[in-house]
Amino acid sequence: MEDVHILTLNTSRIGHLSTNISVPSGDGSSGSSTLDGIKKNITSGINSIIDGAESIAGDIANDIAKDLGIHDFYTAHVMSFCEGFYKGNTTEGVSMNVTHCSKPKGMYSFDPTVILQKELIKGVSLKDIKWPEKVQDGLNALSMAARAMFVFYMIGIATVGLMIFTSLAGLSGSPLVSAINFFLSHFAYLNLAIASAIATAIAVKSSNIINKYGADIGIAAYKGGKFIAMTWAATALALVASLAWIVIFFLGRKGRGGYLAAGS
In sequence order, what are the beta bridge partners of 76? Predict the structure, then answer.
């Protein structure tokens, strides 16, 4: 489910808004030729905007990202990240073409600095592209929250998994089993609610930080609306389940009480 993510980092327009990207001076090698091409792309992009050719400028901005060796976008997930390129244009519509996803990892924290530094062409660093330190500082501050989110999600999911078996036992109508299912479902609800709240906070806070400090070099971020909707829907279902089991518990006790009264 690559399209269900917490956050999207858009780097396709990097260098599109600024000519302040500095690269090492050329020495006649093929690497320096690429860097010279990047400079030309940046200048051409600015000129294209001035001329009103926005669609052409967008294509040139994408060329800048590719010349730097990076992808158009990076999506952050609970246990991994994905990357890829945008397809189409503003006229016909744009879609996300995911080309790679990292292996799932527990306690994962999205770190675009490490990812981008690995992908940048040889001889170019994050400092050269004016990567804002405040963006990284802000994301670092959220890394602990990301790990806490993972723990709460795992506890909630594990509890829901356990409920599959206890719910089958609950079909017997036993008040004791119904009570156990109520406590399990409520426990799952609490953990999923906390995890969803943290995920929402991470999505909103991260996108605000990136958009505030990264706009000058052409990077942007968007919170994952689909992920947020799904995680809160799962939380709501856990709450409904807990309420259902408490109703079943009292109905079971009422039925058993009536049965005992009739027997006496």
Answer: 7, 81
Q: Give the rounded percent of residues in the chain with a pLDDT score beyond 70.
A: 74
- Short-list 223, 203, 218, 221, CA closest to 12: 218
CA dihedral 136, 138, 140, 143 (to 10 degrees): -130
What's the sign of the alpha-carbon dihedral 25, 28, 34, 37?
positive
Mean pLDDT of all residues belonging to the chain: 80
The pLDDT of residue 65: 73
Matching residue, tokens 């829907």: 233
- Any idea what the Cα angle at residue 45 is, between residues 132 and 209, rounded to 5°? 25
Give the confidence band of 253 by pLDDT, cuts at 50, 70, 90.
Answer: low
Please answer whether residues 191 and 148 qualify as being in contact, where contact means their C-beta atoms are separated by less than 8 angstroms: no
Which residues is 82 bridged to in the sheet? 75, 101
Residue owning tokens 């006496």? 264
**Per-residue pLDDT reduced to its tens digit, 154-213:** 999 999 999 989 888 877 778 888 889 999 999 999 999 999 999 999 999 999 999 999
Spatial contact of 124 and 68, defined as CB atoms under 8 Å apart: yes
Name 92's Cβ contacts closer than 8 Å, sequence gap at least 6.
none
Query: What pTM, to 2 d.p., does this model score?
Result: 0.77
Q: What is the C-alpha end-to-end distance of the chain, expressed in Å? A: 58
Q: Please give the Cα distance from 155 to 145 (Å, whole number).
A: 15
- Name the band, by pLDDT with cuts 50, 70 and 90, for residue 221: very high
Amino acid of residue 61: A
